[in-house]
Amino acid sequence: MAEEQASPIATEAELSDRVADLVEYLVLSIVDDEDAVSLEVIDGADASVIEITVADADVAKVIGRHGRTIKAIRTLARALAARLGTSVEVEVLG
């Protein structure tokens, strides 16, 4: 029985979606109102931008004290993106 392997060449959108899945998982574990969380992935020429929208009451939780939480999320997202051979930026819209 032969197993099918995924195509070794993934599109930029597929790669940024994998990073967005990680970001979504992290954000959902932080916020109280999970239904208000939405992510939009904007694929650009140089990098993809992941825009996070959360409830007003959860913005401070996602950003964290002195921006430590969002910095950690960005670090993890960039590390995964680098491993996948792409680059991303993470922005919190509120």
UniProtKB/TrEMBL annotation:
SUPFAM superfamilies in the cross-refs: Prokaryotic type KH domain (KH-domain type II)
GO MF annotations in UniProt: RNA binding
Main localization, broad class: cytoplasm
Subcellular location per the Swiss-Prot or TrEMBL entry: Cytoplasm
Keyword terms of this UniProt record: Cytoplasm, RNA-binding
Assigned GO CC terms: cytoplasm
Classification via PANTHER family: RNA-BINDING PROTEIN KHPA, UPF0109 PROTEIN SCO5592
Family the UniProt entry places it in: Belongs to the KhpA RNA-binding protein family.
Protein function: A probable RNA-binding protein.
Protein name: RNA-binding protein KhpA
Organism: [Collinsella] massiliensis
